[in-house]
Specification:
Layout: H1 8-22, E1 31-35, H2 41-49, E2 54-59, H3 61-70, E3 83-84, E4 96-102, H4 110-123, E5 124-134, H5 145-157, H6 166-175, E6 178-186, E7 190-197
Parallel strand pairs: 1-2, 1-4, 2-3, 4-5
Antiparallel strand pairs: 5-7, 6-7
Helix pairs in contact: 1-2, 4-6
Length: 200
């Protein structure tokens, strides 16, 4: 699925606060799979902030060429060649210590969101983390005006898109053996949600 709506500057703006919150969680990680890597802004920033982690960038097949071009000059061993990943198809062989995605859940249709959680549950190592950043809704809670307007704009563009309720995502996570371990408030009414895969 497409994971972007044309605003690459957003990835540049939000990379520092995201990784400020993410780095403490990924301190012991060796391999991370990024879903919906876009123009590789976060993959490159990950190399600066987490130089010892192998950061595997991926994006949907329709956006893969753009991601390859964005990383054409890569020389770092820990930034392997980016993958084309349709979350509803075959996933790369794990295990990964974390699966990370920024601003992906509201751009995917619900079937793809379900596939994202199921796929992450399969490829994560025991104790691995699924980390999703973006704007989310809460069941029964009036959203912030900015998020309400964004949700309406997404649904007007494509009824299959839209902000997702944290409770609905958590239900998908539970099915995949994942438990919500942190819900971090971020700038501009965004959040960083972190689920951990069961060790058992």
């Amino acid at each position: 699925m497409s994971t972007h709506i044309g605003d690459d500057s957003a990835a540049e703006r939000n990379k520092r606060p995201i990784f400020d919150a993410l780095v403490p969680w990924l301190g012991g990680a060796c391999r991370v799979l990024e879903v919906g890597a876009g123009d590789a802004t976060h993959a490159r920033h990950a190399r600066e902030r987490l130089p010892d982690i192998v950061w595997q960038a991926s994006d949907a097949p329709g956006h893969h060429r753009r991601l390859v071009a964005a990383l054409a000059d890569r020389k770092e061993l820990n930034l392997p060649a980016p993958l084309a990943l349709d979350v509803r198809g075959d996933w790369p062989a794990g295990p990964f210590d974390a699966v990370y995605g920024a601003n992906v859940a509201h751009i995917m249709d619900w079937a793809a969101v379900q596939a994202l959680f199921a796929g992450a549950g399969r490829v994560l190592a025991a104790g691995g983390l699924l980390c999703l950043y973006g704007p989310f809704l809460r069941a029964g809670v009036t959203p912030e005006p900015g998020n309400a307007n964004f949700d309406a704009a997404l649904r007007a563009r494509d009824p299959a898109m839209g902000l997702r309720e944290i409770e609905a995502l958590d239900a998908l996570a539970t099915r995949g053996g994942l438990s919500l371990v942190d819900d971090i408030a971020m700038p501009s009414d965004n959040r960083l949600l972190i689920w951990r895969k069961s060790i058992a």
